[in-house]
Amino acid sequence: MPINIPKQLPAREILEQEKIFVMDVERAKTQDIRPLNILILNLMPEKEKTEVQLLRLLGNTPLQVNISFLRTATHKSKNVSKSHLTQFYTTFKEVKHRRFDGMIMTGAPVEKMPFEQVNYWEELKEIMEWTKDHVTSVLHICWGAQAALYYHYGIDKFDLTRKCSGVFKHQVTDATVKLVRGFDDYFLAPHSRYTSVEMEEIVANDALLLLSSSEEAGPFLIISKDEKHVMITGHLEYDAMTLAEEYERDLQKGLDIHIPENYFPNDDPTQQPLNKWRSHTHLLFSNWLNYYVYQETPYEWE
User: Which secondary-structure segment (H or E) carries 162?
Assistant: First the structure.
């Protein structure tokens, strides 16, 4: 089934070229079904790339999904045009009266800062508090996962000695949980971050369940036992070339950065990297939409 997105959204052309089923509002109104309403809080700097990555995954399930994009009102984005934000994004003030079946909160390039020093942290706290009563399930990615662990469960992040960048092997620790249904015992996933969270704190927290981890990259998939929050510490949504683009960007900035691990063939940045995590990415998003959003959300919100 399709995702319902604005007709003029630039991501639409890319998705249609990839044969992702998309539709506009006019066609969606002719279908007598109850679509899922998903809110995406996009905190990534290159918003249009993130839009494509997430919409590609949300459009690959049997469910019709209505998408709304949310931006922070207390932070001005530098890497996307004001017209794009005005046309396709809304602010929390404009949607806080609504209820959503699911929400995705992306990562953000602010992980080296204490949470309280992020200029939109107070706004983000208000949004995370609002999700408790207005969203059925929330999927948090990378820094978004760390922010959720900190705000909801009191688990703080810590600085790594060097950036965790690369594609790492992860082990499923509890295959009975619906979120990882169909997963291999081991799977690959990309990471790109300067901070992490202590695995011991997650395991010791009675409200959380650790679903997968990596010897090199640490805890990866975490879910709250009430199934309200899903935290992904890496970037399953990344394209094959995303880590390469970030590596080149960091080199141009003159940063002391290492080659992403287990990523380029023969650790040679001149060779084309392969996407070795695509199938599990689609499976995870499909499981989340089905088991934690569609199966749990009320047909009519009271």
Answer: strand 157-172
Q: Is 249 annotated as a binding residue?
A: yes
The question of whether 237 is a catalytic residue gets the answer: yes
Q: Is 71 known as a binding-site position? A: no
Domain boundaries, the chain: 3-158+195-237+277-294
Cα 237 to Cα 186: distance, rounded to the nearest angstrom: 18
* CA 141 – CA 216 distance, rounded (Å): 18
Residue-wise pLDDT tens digits, 41-63: 999 989 999 999 999 999 887 77
Say what the pTM is.
0.88
Q: Which member of 142, 164, 191, 229 is catalytic?
A: 142
Binned at pLDDT 50, 70 and 90, residue 30 comes out as very low
Tokens 């989340």 belong to which residue? 288
Token pair for 5: 């997105």
SS3 182: coil
Query: In 3D, which of 36, 69, 66, 25 has the Cα closest to residue 50?
Result: 69
Give catalytic status of residue 245 as yes or no: no
Looking up tokens 């990378």, which residue turns up? 142
Phi, psi of 213 (to 5 degrees): -155, 170
The domain made up of 3-158+195-237+277-294 is a member of CATH 3.40.50.620: no
126 is catalytic: no
pLDDT in tens, 132-180: 999 999 999 999 999 999 999 999 999 999 999 999 999 999 999 999 9
Q: How far apart are CA 215 and CA 237, in angstroms?
A: 21
Residue type at 23? Answer: M
The confidence band for 221, taking pLDDT boundaries of 50, 70 and 90, is very high
Write down how long the chain is: 302
